[in-house]
């Protein structure tokens, strides 16, 4: 059975050289799915009528911009932090491993988006009012827990992605991965307040 970064990241990164294209596709899909979760609310927060085609194009563009931002910031942060820690290795390999380490983000975004769309299609989606979109408490708690678990999972995978790409000890790699995922985890906690 082939190794997977989700459950055996050390084996995965040791046995394979992940491509930039596949890493980019993971992040692009994660971004598109995340932006698609806001689509049911578009008529509630905007007075502009969007056609289905315009909405789809907006989701695709928004997902691509979000994915590019996450990938760029993540890659640069990992590369710089590992350089300070004495790591060596290609930034291209770092970028590929950062993209593959984000695979749990695709899962988390898919779960959240499916729930929001299921609520919207069943008519159970509560109305929101701009400028603050306030989801029901149970959905905020669920999203925070799933997001927190997802980012811990990303940190676990990223530890071995860093270890492989920058030739650092696993312990140093884990500290750097923990630093990278700390802010998103903290953001999940603050979403509950």
Overview of the molecule:
The chain has one domain (9-191). It has helices at 9-15, 20-36, 42-45, 52-84, 91-101, 103-122, 137-166, 170-191. The model has no long low-confidence stretch (mean pLDDT 90). The protein contains eight helices and no strands. It starts with 8 loop residues before the first helix and ends with a helix. By secondary structure, the protein is mostly helical.
Span between N and C termini? 44 Å
Spell out the helices and strands N to C. Answer: HHHHHHHH
Shape field: elongated
- β-strand number: 0
Query: How would you state the average pLDDT, rounded?
Result: 90
The helix/strand class is mainly alpha
Query: Number of DSSP helices?
Result: 8
Number of domains: 1
Helix content: over 70%
- Low-confidence region ranges: none
Give the radius of gyration.
18 Å
Largest sheet: none
Short description:
By secondary structure, the chain is mainly alpha-helical. Helix content is 75%, strand content 0%. The radius of gyration is 18 Å and the shape is elongated.
Jot down its keywords.
single chain, 193 residues, mainly alpha, 75% helix
Layout of strands and helices, then pairs:
Elements lengths: L8 H7 L4 H17 L5 H4 L6 H33 L6 H11 L1 H20 L14 H30 L3 H22 L2
């Amino acid at each position: 059975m082939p190794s997977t970064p989700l459950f055996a990241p050390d084996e995965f990164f040791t046995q394979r050289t992940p491509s930039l294209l596949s890493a980019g596709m993971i992040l692009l899909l994660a971004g598109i799915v995340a932006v698609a979760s806001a689509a049911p609310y578009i008529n509630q927060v905007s007075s502009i009528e969007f056609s289905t085609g315009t909405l789809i194009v907006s989701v695709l563009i928004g997902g691509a911009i979000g994915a590019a931002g996450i990938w760029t910031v993540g890659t640069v942060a990992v590369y710089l932090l590992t350089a300070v820690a004495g790591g060596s290795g290609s930034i291209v390999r770092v970028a590929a491993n950062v993209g593959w380490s984000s695979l749990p983000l695709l899962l988390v975004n898919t779960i959240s988006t499916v729930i929001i769309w299921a609520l919207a299609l069943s008519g159970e989606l509560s109305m929101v009012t701009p400028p603050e979109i306030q989801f029901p408490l149970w959905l905020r708690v669920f999203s925070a827990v799933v997001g927190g678990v997802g980012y811990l999972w990303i940190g676990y995978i990223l530890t071995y992605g860093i270890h492989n790409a920058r030739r650092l000890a696993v312990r140093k790699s884990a500290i750097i991965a923990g630093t990278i995922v700390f802010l998103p985890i903290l953001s999940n906690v603050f979403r509950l307040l």
